[in-house]
Design a protein that fits this description.
Strand order of the largest sheet of chain A: 2-1-3-4
Largest interface: A-B, 26 and 27 residues
InterPro entries (chain B): Glutathione-S-Trfase_C-like, Glutathione-S-Trfase_C_sf, Glutathione_S-Trfase, Glutathione_S-Trfase_N, GST_C, GST_superfamily, Thioredoxin-like_sf
Catalytic activity (chain B): RX + glutathione = an S-substituted glutathione + a halide anion + H(+)
Shape of chain B: globular
CATH topology of the largest domain in chain B: Glutathione S-transferase Yfyf (Class Pi), Chain A, domain 2
CATH architecture of the largest domain in chain A: Up-down Bundle
Number of helices of chain A: 8
Oligomer: heterodimer
Order of helices and strands of chain B: EHEHEEHHHHHH
Pfam families (chain B): GST_C_3 (PF14497), GST_N (PF02798)
Number of strands of chain B: 4
CATH topology of the largest domain in chain A: Glutathione S-transferase Yfyf (Class Pi), Chain A, domain 2
Strand content of chain B: 5-15%
Enzyme class (chain B): transferase
Largest sheet of chain A: 4 strands, mixed
Helix content of chain B: 55-70%
CATH class of the largest domain in chain B: Mainly Alpha
Number of helices of chain B: 8
EC number (chain B): 2.5.1.18
């Protein structure tokens, strides 16, 4: 099986896939599309968007779909149908938060509205989401969000928390001790830790042209 | 196993789930929340949102998650993991278009709404539906993925019906394969029966 991640040269939406591959020690190729080359490349993509995962030449699109596919292929999706669904639920719920972040950070043309949206994001949307996730993590016990073993949802959500720490506020998890422990647990997994130390990607100062 | 779907008393994000449950032959309690009661119910939902699917004494949130759970359980997810992922890909893509529709549909300012409607029909619909129409054509048969009905067909058909009903009756005129797929979904006996009994 050959795997290629086709994306821009940033963490962005593909980082969760890279983290999953690293956790599993599965080789993949990072096909980087430069932003200058994107307009020419775009029409040939399934939906005019990136990231794309290419598996033995077949292409799959949509960030969560790709993560979920990897989760199922490599058995990182919980141990029951219910746990599988809970992985989905937590990823979908946190997607809403990240889509709003992308919306005001990269896509909002009106400066005043951008400030307004960011303020609401910080004062209301983040706490609403993190408070619920904190309770979920606490109730689950152990290191992870679902069941007893690492799932694709843990990697996906930990990555989003890192995104928020990197771009919004590095102290954002201070009021959420269970989430702080959870994120540290995921990023301390030896293969993930090794990947992060090597990769040099950062969420700080992301290129606004690539949202 | 008891199933209860809690959602508002309109189609919105709940209808695809209702159609899916009907296709699966699952009896469920259709718990429809009136908007005026929502403020008192909201704090008791896991993410302060509906739809919520109650399965026995447990609950599941997020509309696509719920669809996927039912589809997996009742074998409406294609024949293998790749087809299951294609179901996801197409549903998530049409969901992106649905999110754009929401912006148009709930716009209060009539001038802005007319602008959004125009953008929806001239730019967004072609952006998504040209490709989806081609995918259906390339797949052959009546469905989007593989040889049998999947939750992606039901999910997409439901959203396309919404666009026809609320934006423009002729929205599928240039996408005959999608119209064929939608008609095939709504001709499925259990879906037909559910709609007639609605």
């Amino acid at each position: 099986m050959t795997y290629k991640i086709i994306y821009f040269g940033i963490k962005g939406r593909a980082e969760a896939f890279r983290l999953i591959f690293s956790a599993l020690d599965v080789k993949y190729e990072d096909v980087i599309i430069k932003s200058a080359d994107w307009p020419g490349y775009k029409p040939g993509t399934p939906w005019g968007q990136l990231p794309i995962l290419e598996v033995d030449g077949q292409q799959l699109a949509q960030t969560s779909t790709i993560c979920r596919y990897l989760g199922h292929t490599f058995n990182l999706c919980g141990e029951t149908a219910w746990e599988d669904a809970k992985c989905d639920e937590y990823v979908d719920a946190t997607n809403d938060l990240i889509e709003e972040w992308i919306g005001f950070k990269f896509l909002e043309p009106d400066e005043a509205r951008k400030v307004e949206r960011k303020a609401k994001f910080v004062s209301t949307l983040i706490p609403n989401c993190l408070a619920k996730l904190e309770v979920i993590k606490e109730k689950n016990g152990g290191d992870f969000l679902v069941g007893k073993k690492l799932t694709w949802a843990d990697i996906n959500v930990a990555d989003k928390l890192a995104m928020l720490e990197g771009d919004i506020d590095s102290t954002i998890l201070e009021g959420y001790p269970n989430l702080k422990m959870f994120k540290n647990a995921v990023f301390s997994i030896p293969r993930i830790k090794a990947y992060i130390e090597k990769s040099g990607y950062t969420y700080v100062n992301m290129d606004p042209g690539l949202g | 196993m008891s199933y209860k779907l809690t959602y508002f008393d309109f189609k919105g994000r709940g209808e695809a789930i209702r159609l899916l449950l009907a296709t699966a032959g699952v009896k469920f309690a259709d718990d429809r929340v009136k908007l005026e009661n929502w403020p008192s119910i909201k704090p008791h939902t896991p993410w302060e949102m509906v739809p919520v699917l109650h399965v026995g004494d447990r609950s599941l949130s997020q509309s696509l998650t719920i669809c996927r759970y039912i589809a997996r359980k009742f074998k409406l997810m294609g024949a293998n993991e790749w087809e299951a992922s294609k179901c996801d890909e197409y549903a998530e893509t049409i969901n992106d278009l649905y999110l754009e529709w929401i912006k148009f549909n709930f716009e209060a300012d009539p001038d802005k709404k007319a602008e959004l409607k125009n953008a929806f029909l001239t730019t967004l619909v072609p952006k998504y539906l040209i490709k989806l129409n081609t995918l259906q054509s390339n797949n052959g048969g009546n469905f989007l993925v593989g040889n049998t009905l999947t939750w992606a067909d039901i999910f997409v058909a439901d959203k396309l019906q919404t666009f026809e009903d609320t934006v423009d009756q002729g929205v599928l005129n240039e996408y005959p394969h999608l119209r064929k797929m939608k008609d095939a979904v709504f001709a499925e006996p259990r879906i037909k029966a559910y709609i007639e009994g609605r």
